[in-house]
Write a structure and sequence with these properties.
single chain; D-Maltodextrin-Binding Protein, domain 2; 12 helices; 45% helix; 325 residues; five-stranded mixed β-sheet; alpha/beta
Length: 325
């Protein structure tokens, strides 16, 4: 009798104190969700987050508000997300910049591995080296020859100090031995605007953000930064193919939440994220930019991030890139 009574008391206590997975499943989300994107509107990360966020909103009948928090090489947005309550109502869109920053910055106010639960890698975004049409170079070999003939006469823009586009430029200069002046911007959009206007000569960024300008002739593509050619622009050779063996700088975009977010909420977001990136309209809208959709598991994306931190850490040290300003 005593044993039975004790068991009943324990069961009742557990029912009162333990969170109900079933209840969380049915009630989440019960209010608007914000999705922190650490870049300005119009960039590749922003475009993808808005497309997937719209699908979340439709499925859950709750607004998903994209909150652009640019600056600090994606650290400002990451820090804000890391400090948010782990309740599923703040999402974050980590990118390759956050893997780079682990080595690039001597001290960060967040830990990209410890402070987040990474849900899935939404997509990989190939990059491209573009130049203003006035630049007398039609491929990477000609760009290298031009830069060597005129040291520091060419300017390469980036989305900011320590951004993937900055580091890609540093790796490019290190591998080729050329000297170009780095011009950092607060995001991809202003950098692209200035290269289109001819204020800078070269930019290395995601293909998805530059394709409209390539099609219009306002920019010229010199090479893609994936190891192989990209299906939507098969006429553009890779840098690897053009003699820079092993050159690969591909961006990616996760959906993540603050560490400690309940597992059932994590998996609910995961299921909807994978469903969203499989939708034909999402694929049609973003595949034109060469987007490669992923949709891996939380365990797989975490392992991938650890490998990326190691890979980019080596690249940062080899290139000598340092955060500035």
């Amino acid at each position: 009798m005593t044993t039975t009574r004790t068991a009943l008391i324990c069961s009742a206590a557990l029912m009162l104190t333990a969170p109900s997975t079933a209840l969380a499943q049915t009630t989440y989300p019960a209010k608007p969700i914000r999705w922190i994107v650490p870049y300005t509107p119009g960039g590749g990360t922003d475009i993808l987050a808005r497309a997937v966020g719209q699908k979340f909103a439709e499925a859950w009948a709750q607004p998903v508000i994209i909150e652009n928090r640019p600056g600090g090489a994606a650290n400002i947005g990451a820090e804000a997300a890391a400090k948010s309550p782990p309740d599923g109502y703040t999402l974050f869109a980590p990118t390759v910049a956050n893997a780079i920053n682990v080595t690039l910055f001597p001290k960060l106010n967040y830990d990209i591995l410890r402070d987040f639960s990474h849900i899935t890698n939404l997509a990989k975004l190939p990059g491209v080296v573009v130049a203003h049409p006035s630049v007398p170079a039609k491929n990477i070999k000609e760009l290298v020859a031009l830069a060597k003939a005129q040291p520091n006469a060419l300017h390469h823009g980036s989305a900011g100090i320590g951004s993937p586009s900055h580091l890609a430029g540093e790796i490019f200069k290190s591998m080729t031995g050329v000297q170009m002046v780095h011009v950092p911007y607060k995001g991809a959009s202003p950098a692209i605007t200035d290269v289109v206007a001819g204020h800078i000569e070269v930019y290395i960024g995601t293909l998805v953000t530059t394709i409209p300008h390539l099609k219009s002739g306002r920019l010229r593509a010199l090479g893609v930064t994936s190891l192989n050619r990209v299906g939507v622009v098969p006429q553009i050779p890779s840098l690897n193919e053009q003699g820079l063996k092993g050159f690969e700088t591909v961006s990616w975009v996760f959906v993540s939440v603050p560490a400690g977010t309940p597992r059932d909420i994590v998996m609910k977001i995961h299921r909807e994220a994978v469903r969203a990136i499989r939708m034909p309209d999402i694929r049609e809208r973003l595949a034109a930019g060469g987007t490669e959709f992923v949709g891996d598991t939380p365990e797989q994306v975490t392992a991938f991030l650890k490998a990326e931190i190691e890979k980019w850490g080596k690249a940062v040290r080899a290139s000598g890139a340092k955060p500035q300003g």
